[in-house]
C-alpha cells in the first residue's frame, strides 16, 4: 500500500530537516498539535522546535523574511495556508525574490520554496478554492513546480528545497493530499504503460495501450492529472480510442519535450487546467508547441478549463464551474475525427 | 436487520481510511461495541454497534480506503437470518467478487456475441476488441467487425431487427475495398456476409464470412436484410456489373451509396444509388452520378460532370468540368478528359490517354492514344 501524497510530503520535510540544518519552515499555525491547516507540517515543530516558525497573518511579511533567510544561506520552506493567499506575497516574490539574482549581478541567489495548497472541489468557496499559479506565469526568475499522484511528491519537494537555487512556487492540490501515490515501476503504472522523462522535475506519460497507438494527447498537471487518467480510461472503454496523458511537473519553465513527442505521434491535443483558461497554462502549451508537433496536428487543439467565474460554496455550482472528467472526455471527442478510428471495426 | 454505513467524519472528505476492524464476519456484538476505527485527514473515529446483533456482510478490511456512505456491514438479530443486499452493497459485492478482466464496451459486446469467456484471454490492462479477435484465432491483420457473422448455415445468421444488415455480392479484390468502405464510412451498417457464385469462392474475406451463392438472396430478404453492395470491380466489363446490379434490384435490395470518409464529395453533388466513391476521390460541385458508378481512388470529377449508370472511373482518372461519361463506360488510369467532352455508352478509354473530343458509343481508345 503506497503512501498518500500528504504522508509523502510530511515525511520528506522530516527527512530534510533531519539531514540538513539549513531547512526551516515558516507559515501560519504550523505548531503541533495543529501542524498546519492540511497537516503537511505535522510533527515538525515537536522534532525541530527551533526551525519551525509560526507567524502572524501576513504573507507579505513572512515571505519577505523567508527571502532574506534564503539570501543569507538558509533553505526556507514557506507554507501558505491556502494557495489563494499567495497573492498577498506577489510583490515580495515577483518584484524582489525572483529578481535579486539579476539586481545583484548573480552575487546572491534566493533558494526559497513556497508551498501552495491550491484547488477546489471541497466547498471552500470563492477565496479558498482557486488555482492561481497561472498569475505567476511569465514572471522572470520564478520557477513553478506542480506535483501529482504519479510522481513522488516528497522527492519533488526535496529537489525544490535542497537542490534548486531559484525561488520555487511548489503547487499542491488539496484534494490530492488524501490520495495514494501511484508509483511507476518497470515502465508500468497499474494497467498503464508509463514513461518518465529525465530531469529534476519529470513529466510522466501514461497510456492504457502502447504509446505508438495514441489517438489523442491529453496534457494535465496537478489536480487535473487523476481526472485526466480517468478520462483516458473512459475513452478506451467507451470508444476504443487511446489517449496518452502527459503530466508535466515543471510548469515554469514549461517542460515541452514529452508533450511535443506525444503530439507528434497522436496528431490531436487537449490541454487541461483547473483555473479559468484565459491567459493560462493551456494557451502557453499550445503556443509553445515546436514546429514538428504543430505540423502533426490534424485538428485545432482544445483547452479544458474552469468557467470564468468565482467558485461558489454550493457543491453543485462549484462542480458546474470546475472542469471534470466529462469535460475532458467531451473535448477529446471534439478533436478526434469520427471516421478515423483505428479500431478493429474500421 | 440493520445496515451500517461509513459515516462522514469531515465535511470536506468523501473517503476515509479503515485503520482497524475489531470484529469478524458472523461475530455476535453488543450495543456500543466498537466495530472498526476510521481515520480522515483530520480525525479518527470509532464506529459502534447501534444495537445487539450479529455482524454480517462485513464489507471493509483494514488498510483500505472506503467511501463515505458505503455499506460497512449489516447487523442481524440471529446468526442465520438472511441478509438482503442494499443496492450499493450488491454493487460492491459484484465488483469485489468478480474476477472478470476489464474490457471495452465493444470488446464486451464481441465477447458475448461469440460466447468468449473473458477470463480465458491472457491480457495486461483493459481488453480491447483486438484482444478478442486475436483470441478468436484471427491475427490482428484479419479483422472482423462485431456484427459480421461467423460462417454458418444461413438460418443461423442473425439479421437483427435494426435494418442495418448489409450483404455484399462478390468475393473478389473489389469486395475487400467495399468491406473497408462500409467499416470506415458506414459504421451504422453491419456486414452480415458475402454472396458469391464462383464454385471456388473463399470461406471468408477480411473476417466476413462467405455465406454461399445467389440462391440465398431470397432467404436473406425474407429475414429482413434490405441492403446490399456490389463487390465486383470487373475491370472493363461494366455490362456484367450492370447485370449483377439489376439482379440485386430484382431481389428487392436497396444499394446504399458508399463514400469513403477520405473522399471529398461536395454537398451540391447528386447521386442515385449504389455508387462507390473511394479514398482520395474528388467529386466536385454540381456533379451528377447515376446508379452503380465506381469513382476509384484519386479520381477527379470536376464541376458539372455527368457520370451515367454503371460507369467506372479507374484510379487517377482526371475529368475536367462539364464532362459526360455514358452508361457502362470505363475511363482508364491516369487518363485525362478535356473540358465539356462527351464520352458515349460502353466506351473504353485506355490508360494514360488524353481525350480532347467526343467519343461515340462503343469506341475503344487504346492506352496512350489520343
UniProtKB/TrEMBL annotation, chain A:
What keywords does the record list, in alphabetical order? Oxidoreductase, Thiamine pyrophosphate
What the entry lists under CDD domains is as follows:
TPP_PYR_E1-PDHc-beta_like
- Domain Transketolase-like pyrimidine-binding as annotated: residue spans: 3-179
List the InterPro entries hit by this protein, alphabetically: THDP-binding, Transketo_C/PFOR_II, Transketolase-like_Pyr-bd, Transketolase_C
Q: Which cofactor does it need?
A: thiamine diphosphate
Q: What is this protein called?
A: Alpha-ketoacid dehydrogenase subunit beta
Lineage at the top is: Bacteria, Deltaproteobacteria, Bradymonadales, Lujinxingiaceae, Lujinxingia
UniProtKB/TrEMBL annotation, chain B:
Residues in Lipoyl-binding domain copies: 1-76
The answer to whether the entry has keyword Repeat is yes
**Known InterPro entries for this protein?**
2-oxoA_DH_lipoyl-BS, AcTrfase_PglD-like, Biotin_lipoyl, Hexapep_transf_CS, PglD_N, Single_hybrid_motif, Trans_hexapeptide_repeat, Trimer_LpxA-like_sf
Tell me where on the tree of life, at the top rank, the source sits. Bacteria
Q: Does the keyword Repeat apply?
A: yes
Q: Which UniProt keywords apply?
A: Lipoyl, Repeat, Transferase
Q: Which Pfam families match?
A: Biotin_lipoyl (PF00364), PglD_N (PF17836)
Q: Protein name, please?
A: Lipoyl-binding domain-containing protein
Which species?
A: Lujinxingia sediminis
Amino acid at each position: 500500500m503506497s503512501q498518500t501524497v500528504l504522508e509523502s510530503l510530511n515525511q520528506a520535510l522530516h527527512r530534510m530537516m533531519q539531514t540538513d540544518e539549513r531547512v526551516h519552515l515558516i507559515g501560519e499555525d504550523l505548531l503541533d498539535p495543529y501542524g498546519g491547516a492540511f497537516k503537511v507540517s505535522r510533527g515538525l515543530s515537536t522534532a525541530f522546535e527551533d526551525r519551525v516558525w509560526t507567524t502572524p497573518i501576513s504573507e507579505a511579511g513572512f515571505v519577505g523574511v523567508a527571502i532574506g533567510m534564503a539570501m543569507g544561506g538558509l533553505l526556507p520552506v514557506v507554507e501558505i495556508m491556502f494557495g489563494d493567499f499567495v497573492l498577498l506575497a506577489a510583490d515580495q516574490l515577483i518584484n524582489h525574490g525572483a529578481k535579486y539574482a539579476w539586481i545583484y549581478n548573480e552575487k546572491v541567489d534566493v533558494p526559497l520554496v513556497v508551498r501552495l495548497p491550491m484547488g477546489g472541489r471541497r466547498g471552500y468557496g470563492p477565496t479558498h478554492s482557486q488555482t492561481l499559479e497561472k498569475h505567476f506565469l511569465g514572471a522572470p526568475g520564478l520557477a513553478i513546480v506542480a506535483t501529482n499522484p504519479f510522481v513522488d511528491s516528497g522527492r519533488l519537494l526535496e529537489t525544490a528545497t535542497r537542490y534548486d537555487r531559484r525561488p520555487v512556487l511548489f503547487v499542491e492540490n488539496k484534494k490530492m493530499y488524501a490520495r495514494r501515490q501511484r508509483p511507476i515501476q518497470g515502465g508500468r503504472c497499474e494497467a498503464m504503460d508509463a514513461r518518465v522523462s529525465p530531469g529534476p522535475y519529470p513529466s510522466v506519460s501514461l497510456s492504457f495501450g502502447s504509446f505508438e497507438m495514441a489517438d489523442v494527447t491529453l496534457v494535465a498537471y496537478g489536480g487535473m492529472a487523476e481526472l485526466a487518467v480517468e478520462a483516458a480510461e473512459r475513452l478506451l472503454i467507451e470508444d476504443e480510442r487511446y489517449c496518452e496523458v502527459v503530466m508535466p511537473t515543471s510548469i515554469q519553465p514549461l517542460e515541452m519535450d514529452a508533450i511535443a513527442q506525444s503530439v507528434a505521434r497522436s496528431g490531436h491535443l487537449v490541454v487541461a487546467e483547473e483555473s479559468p483558461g484565459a491567459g493560462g497554462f493551456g494557451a502557453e502549451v499550445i503556443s509553445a508547441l515546436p514546429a514538428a508537433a504543430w505540423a502533426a496536428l490534424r485538428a485545432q487543439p482544445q483547452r479544458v478549463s474552469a468557467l470564468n467565474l468565482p467558485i461558489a460554496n454550493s457543491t453543485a455550482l462549484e462542480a458546474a464551474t470546475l472542469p471534470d472528467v466529462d469535460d475532458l472526455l467531451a473535448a477529446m471527442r471534439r478533436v478526434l475525427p469520427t471516421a478515423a478510428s483505428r479500431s478493429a471495426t474500421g | 436487520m440493520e445496515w451500517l454505513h461509513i459515516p462522514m467524519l469531515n465535511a470536506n472528505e468523501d473517503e476515509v481510511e479503515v485503520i482497524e476492524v475489531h470484529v469478524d464476519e458472523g461475530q455476535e456484538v453488543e450495543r456500543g461495541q466498537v466495530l472498526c476505527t476510521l481515520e480522515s485527514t483530520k480525525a479518527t473515529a470509532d464506529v459502534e454497534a447501534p444495537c445487539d446483533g450479529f455482524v454480517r456482510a462485513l464489507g471493509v478490511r483494514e488498510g483500505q480506503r472506503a467511501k463515505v456512505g458505503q455499506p460497512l456491514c449489516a447487523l442481524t438479530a440471529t446468526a442465520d437470518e438472511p441478509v438482503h443486499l442494499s443496492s450499493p452493497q450488491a454493487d460492491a459485492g459484484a465488483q469485489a467478487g468478480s474476477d472478470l478482466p476489464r474490457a471495452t464496451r465493444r470488446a464486451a459486446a464481441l465477447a458475448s456475441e461469440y460466447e468468449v469467456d473473458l477470463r480465458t484471454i491472457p491480457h495486461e490492462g483493459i481488453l480491447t476488441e483486438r484482444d478478442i479477435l486475436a483470441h478468436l484465432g484471427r491475427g490482428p491483420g484479419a479483422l472482423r467487425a462485431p456484427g459480421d457473422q461467423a460462417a454458418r448455415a444461413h438460418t443461423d445468421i442473425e439479421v437483427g431487427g435494426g435494418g442495418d444488415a448489409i450483404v455484399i455480392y462478390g468475393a473478389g479484390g473489389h469486395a475487400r475495398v467495399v468491406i473497408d468502405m462500409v467499416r470506415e464510412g458506414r459504421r451504422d451498417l453491419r456486414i452480415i456476409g458475402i454472396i458469391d457464385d464462383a464454385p471456388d469462392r473463399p470461406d471468408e474475406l477480411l473476417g466476413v464470412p462467405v455465406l454461399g451463392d445467389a440462391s440465398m438472396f431470397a432467404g436473406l430478404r425474407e429475414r429482413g436484410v434490405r441492403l446490399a453492395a456490389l463487390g465486383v470491380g470487373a475491370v472493363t466489363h461494366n455490362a456484367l456489373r450492370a447485370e449483377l446490379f439489376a439482379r440485386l434490384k430484382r431481389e428487392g435490395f436497396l444499394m446504399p451509396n458508399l463514400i469513403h470518409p477520405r473522399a471529398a464529395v461536395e454537398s451540391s453533388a447528386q447521386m442515385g444509388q449504389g455508387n462507390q466513391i473511394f479514398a482520395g476521390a474528388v467529386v466536385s460541385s454540381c456533379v451528377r452520378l447515376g446508379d452503380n458508378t465506381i469513382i476509384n481512388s484519386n479520381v477527379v470529377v470536376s464541376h458539372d460532370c455527368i457520370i451515367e449508370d454503371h460507369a467506372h472511373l479507374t484510379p487517377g482518372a482526371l475529368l475536367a468540368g462539364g464532362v459526360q461519361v455514358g452508361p457502362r463506360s470505363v475511363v482508364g488510369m491516369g487518363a485525362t478528359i478535356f473540358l465539356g467532352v462527351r464520352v458515349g455508352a460502353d466506351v473504353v478509354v485506355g490508360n494514360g490517354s488524353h481525350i480532347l473530343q467526343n467519343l461515340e458509343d462503343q469506341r475503344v481508345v487504346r492506352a496512350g492514344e489520343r
